[in-house]
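At this stage, I wrote out one protein's amino acid sequence and its backbone structure tokens, and that material follows here:
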Amino acid sequence: MKTKTTATVLAEQVAQTARTALKRLVSRGELPWPEAYTEEFWAVAKTLEFSSILKKEGSESFSPETIQAFMDATDKVLGGVKDTVNNFLASAKQHVGEMESSILSMEEKDMDNLFREEIASLMLKNKTLEAKAKQTEERLKKQTEIIAELRSKLRIDAPTGLLNRRAFESDLKKELAGVKRYKYPLSLIMFDLDHFKNINDTCGHRVGDKVLKKVADVLKKGIRETDAAYRYGGEEFMLILPHTSAEEAYGIAERIRNKISALRFLVKQPETSLTITVSAGLTEAERTEGIEELVNRVDKALYQAKKEGRNRTVKL
């Protein structure tokens, strides 16, 4: 049995605590306003004796892995809260409609004015309740947008602007599930800058960073809207190409490789023009394999490209 990570345990406890806190508020007829929800959340955590959560109370420092796990868990939590608000809003609208119908019916029968005023007052209160429910839904929408923005930032490699390795592993897992279910082709390309260490050693890391950024720009412009580019680590980059055969991927890899070879970098000390090359390995996913098998094969293709002399693409 696979042992759960601390981040996973924390995320599960947060999800359970959030759901329980929401149920308590709803059972008391209270809307989940931020202040009330926060107080209820910590009360539930203490009741359930979730030490992983309680030691985080008041803390503002979390690891990226913990935040990512928490963001994933909150999707379901927010979905449940939104459903509750939507049901509440629908009931409020229905109740207002019934009140309006009752008033019209009484007006036709010329009922007592005082009774009509009481009904009108009740209808007004229901409209106020409906407005509050709408405000709650809007707040939840904003919270969802904030969470989406945080998740997006956790997926980005800051130096290059490409997606990072964490995003690569997550996206490839989803794509392989699609390959298995819908049986479409998917190819993977791995690029590695040739002799990049020499650039850092002779020209400095600032030039090296500039080279990485320019290569990242070439990758972004060289892929289609359905493709995705990632910085896999150091001077290694990955492309995920859905609905793409190995033959099609080879053409894309060669086009990008040639564009990178055409780049020129001005180095002032000594005054010279620097050029770079890349090696590429590519492979097409099989319907029954997992991430590790696929990545190992594309890595093997890249190694072969290096072994054969670099500045070339090898397909396995």
